Amino acid sequence: MPVAEVARQMLDAYPREFNVDRGLLVRCIEACYDCSESCTQCADDCLGEESVQELTSCIRLNLDCADICATTGRVVSRQTGYDADVAGAMLRACIEACRSCADECEIHAAQGMEHCKVCAEECRRCEQALGRRSGTPAVSRKPKALAYAGLSVAGARFTSALNADRTQTGPSGGSARVFERWAQL
């Protein structure tokens, strides 16, 4: 069964009420798991290339992105005892990991490495699923050194939204408010 269907069924079976846009949450979870798989396979394909020494950074970014995406998918799927700070940090880290991995893979894709092309596309899809709403770019295309603390503009807005929630509701904020604010970025 596809990840999105499993996530949808599990969220529908959740024994308590929660006010999260299930469709948005399912898309997030699916994008995270798909990207994780793509990055894992891209790292393995890079290891099979004759020029493996030249792909060290790509392999490292693939593996880091795979781990961060898989973990983000698991963290945001949990609703009981939800911690807005943790979820927000994971979402921001995932956006950044996807962007970095896609940037690196696009370099190798331009040199004819099809696996890097596929991986870059999947990383961009995940980055967009986590950081875009209605076609509005949420990730800064500024050089990393110019981005606030290495985070995207959306990450800074998301952090601000989380801080506003904590001020109003305490440290746990609640998943509904986090995803509502996240969807508005």
What's the topology here?
Elements: H1 3-13, H2 22-48, H3 56-77, H4 84-109, H5 114-131, H6 153-169, H7 175-184
Description:
- This protein has 185 residues and is mainly α.
- The protein has a single domain (3-184), classed as Substrate Binding Domain Of Dnak, Chain:A, Domain 2 (Up-down Bundle).
- It has seven helices and no strands.
- The longest helix has 27 residues, at 22-48.
- It is elongated and about 55 Å long.
- It starts with a helix and ends with a helix.
Structure characteristics:
elongated, 7 helices, Substrate Binding Domain Of Dnak, Chain:A, Domain 2, 185 residues, mainly alpha, 71% helix
Amino-to-carboxy terminus distance: 31 Å
The portion of residues forming beta strands comes to under 5%
Largest sheet: none
In round numbers, the mean pLDDT is 77
Radius of gyration: 17 Å
CATH class: Mainly Alpha
Helix content: over 70%
Uncertain spans: 133-175
Per the CATH scheme, the topology name is Substrate Binding Domain Of Dnak, Chain:A, Domain 2
Q: What spatial form do the alpha-carbon principal axes imply?
A: elongated
Give the CATH architecture.
Up-down Bundle
Number of beta-strand segments: 0
